[in-house]
Design goal:
3-hydroxy-3-methylglutaryl-coenzyme A Reductase, Chain A, domain 2, Alpha-Beta Plaits, Helicase, Ruva Protein, domain 3, 3 domains, 4-stranded antiparallel sheet, 10 strands, binds nicotinamide-adenine-dinucleotide
């Protein structure tokens, strides 16, 4: 399909049988027959055995598609891998509302990662720190000699910073090497550089380099996503006000902020996993960034614009790659990247942040109006029906009955199952 003709806006996608959904995505993303087959296949054991140790098998999670996303004027179908019901539906609904006012807009920094070298056992930390800075050029050259490919693509070590820290063991130095990792997540690239620099740093400082590893607080690799959510579609300005009241609690209270940010990560992790990226790295970076001013707070902010519409903004570190790591090895991760049609890691970061904002909007919108349990439990009803022993057509039948009765409980599902049987 021609790029300009592609629209991710599909009504009733959730009602289509799986086969029809696959056909739609195949056509949208120009997938081959081989790629189409991947949707219903498992990771082969040989590949799994190469990825981790002591492999016994593979562990499957559902892969869904969020529809309706328009980001910086371009349409995207977004693959999401997650075990929790209602997340994909919520993202799609939020993207539909955001579309009314033009969709998501994003911006992001260069893909700069920080590598840390901890230097201990130094007699004069100020002199040692100065000595490192005096040899910045040589250190950066040595770092860049480790990754010619990265340098060829315009990346590589760009800067060096030195911090002096007080600790219970006395003063120590932490030298930060700032590396532009281009389209990689960058952990291996940065760690290799840090290890290569350690002997020279020891020579320059007279100390001992202990830790040599990247920081997951990737606060030089920030993405921002913004969207305007239409007040009429939300149900009027009173609902916008209710939304902002709900959001405010996350901005002042860590207990609420943790749950609020978890909602953001529902969207983010789903895309991170689908594209074979490191979700622990993203989680660690997100929560550390949420505490950057000394108190853990919301990663998103909301306010009303002059027309009374709701404006949402999300700002988050985003260490994602489209080359290297597991995303290069796992066939489904490669497939998901093809569906997204991404050309750079920054483009992926911008999509991920938009999905995080969409997810966050959907959760707070539901919480400040009907509550999340109504939608959540309706979707959960099918799981309950399966847990009660249902299969095939019975799942839908029992789930519908549970929803109709407003009693989505396992004991009731078992009763209905036994009655029907
Ligand atoms: P990688 O080493 O597999 O790939 C990156 C390399 O690919 C670059 O160094 C470069 O040589 C090459 N490359 C080719 N084309 C490129 C392009 N266009 N842009 C950039 N580089 C290009 O992977 P990585 O991204 O360095 O490391 C990611 C992996 O490290 C992940 O699997 C992650 O789980 C793991 N890891 C994470 C941590 C952590 O987060 N604390 C620590 C260790 C390892």
């Amino acid at each position: 399909m021609n790029d300009s003709k592609k629209s991710s806006q599909v009504s009733g996608f959730y009602k289509m049988p799986i086969k029809k959904r696959v056909e739609f995505v195949k056509k949208y993303a120009n997938l081959t027959n081989e790629e189409e087959k991947l949707f219903s296949s498992c990771l082969d054991l040989e590949t799994a055995d190469r990825m981790i140790e002591n492999v016994l098998g593979t562990f499957e999670l559902p892969l869904g598609i969020a529809v309706n996303f328009k980001i910086n004027g371009k349409d995207y179908l977004v693959p999401m891998t997650i075990e929790e019901s209602s997340v994909v539906a919520a993202a799609s609904n939020a993207a539909k509302i955001a579309r009314i006012q033009g969709g998501f807009t994003t911006e992001c920094t260069d893909p700069l990662m920080i590598g840390q070298m901890q230097v201990v056992k130094i007699d004069d930390v100020a002199k040692a720190a100065q000595s490192i800075m005096n040899h910045k050029k040589e250190l950066l050259e040595l770092a860049n000699a480790q990754d010619k490919i990265l340098v060829k693509f315009g990346g590589g070590a760009k800067d060096l910073e030195v911090r002096i820290l007080d600790s219970p063991l006395g003063k120590m130095i932490v030298a930060h090497i700032i590396v532009d990792v281009r389209d990689a997540m960058g952990a291996n690239a940065v760690n290799t550089m840090c290890e290569a620099l350690a002997p020279m740093v020891e020579e320059l400082t007279g100390g001992k380099v202990r830790l040599k590893i990247l920081s997951n607080l990737a606060d030089k690799r920030i993405v921002k996503a913004k969207a305007v959510f239409d007040k009429e579609k939300m149900g009027g300005e009173k609902i916008v006000d209710a939304f902002i009241q709900s959001y405010i609690l996350a901005s002042i209270d860590p207990y609420r902020a943790a749950t609020h940010n978890k909602g953001i990560m529902n969207g983010i992790d789903s895309v991170i996993i689908a594209t074979g990226n490191d979700f622990r790295a993203i989680e660690a970076g997100a929560h550390a960034y949420a505490s950057r001013n000394g108190q853990y707070t919301s990663l998103s902010t909301y306010y009303k614009d002059k027309n009374g519409n709701l404006v949402g903004e999300l700002e988050i570190p985003m260490a994602v790659g489209i080359v290297g790591g597991a995303g290069n090895i796992h066939p489904k991760a490669r497939l998901c990247k093809k569906i997204l049609g991404i050309k750079t890691a920054q483009e992926l970061a911008e999509i991920v942040a938009s999905v995080g904002l969409a997810q966050n909007f959907a959760a707070v919108f539901a919480l400040s109006t009907v509550g999340i349990q109504k939608g959540h439990m309706s979707l959960h009803a099918k799981n309950i029906a399966v847990m009660a022993g249902a299969s095939g057509d019975l799942i839908e039948k029992i789930a519908n009955q549970l929803i109709k009765e407003g009693n989505i409980k396992l004991d009731r599902a078992k009763e209905i199952f036994n009655e029907i049987k």
